[in-house]
Amino acid sequence: MDFSGAYAWPNLRFLLHGFLITLQVAGLSIVFSFVLGTVLGTVRYTRIPVLSQIVAVIVDTIRNLPLLLIIFFIHIVLPQLGIKMSGFWSTVVGLSLFEGAMIAEIVRSGLKSIERGQVEAARSSGLSYMQTLGGIIMPQALRRMSPPMVSQFISLLKDTSLAIIISLPELMHNVQILGGQSFDYVIPALLLAAVLYFVINYTLSIVARRLEARMT
Predict the structure, then answer these.
(1) For this UniProt entry, which segments traverse the membrane (predicted)?
(2) CA distances (Å), origin 215, targets 76, 95, 112, 141, 212
(3) What DSSP assignment string belongs to 65-120?
(4) pLDDT tens digit string along 38-81?
(5) What's the CA gap between 146 and 140, in Å, rounded?
(6) Which end of the chain is more exposed for a tag (fewer CB within 10 A), N or C?
């Protein structure tokens, strides 16, 4: 093992650049999946005729497909249909779709957890259904949904490593490249990657536990 060589500034900068791309992919995917999941989950909860059933089929289909297959499909199949995306955006779109479907179920469950009596009381006081949903149900549901959502975002961050299969220069891809230069660099590079993932994920885990404690 050659720690001094592996952590020489050019190699360290190479790994940190990969980690930056990992964070960029994760950050964009978290935002997009949250928006998408909230919309889909709300539509499922409202049980709009036909539309809710269509959304349910889409969500269940995506949730039961491997994320790697979705990324492959977007990066390899869509270009053949005239829709071309870089490896970066293929990963972001794939993660956003997959995690959005997961979050949709979290949102739907969170909305359903609100007592029916509150809905009836709000409606009887003259509020419309949308006013009740936006002003009464959603704020309470978001508090209950926060811990499982943070846990899902932790999984999302770890899932960015799957982009190595389409050669996106994220952290694990750069670890692989550096390890290919010298076998002595493999363990130091993997250890650094483990530390970087751990710091971010552990921080998010602390946030999730504190949110859960507040809810309790």
Answers:
(1) 20-43, 64-82, 185-208
(2) 43, 28, 16, 11, 5
(3) S-HHHHHHIIIIIHHHTT----HHHHHHHHHHHHHHHHHHHHHHHHHHTS-HHHHH
(4) 999 999 988 888 999 999 999 999 999 999 999 999 999 999 98
(5) 10
(6) C
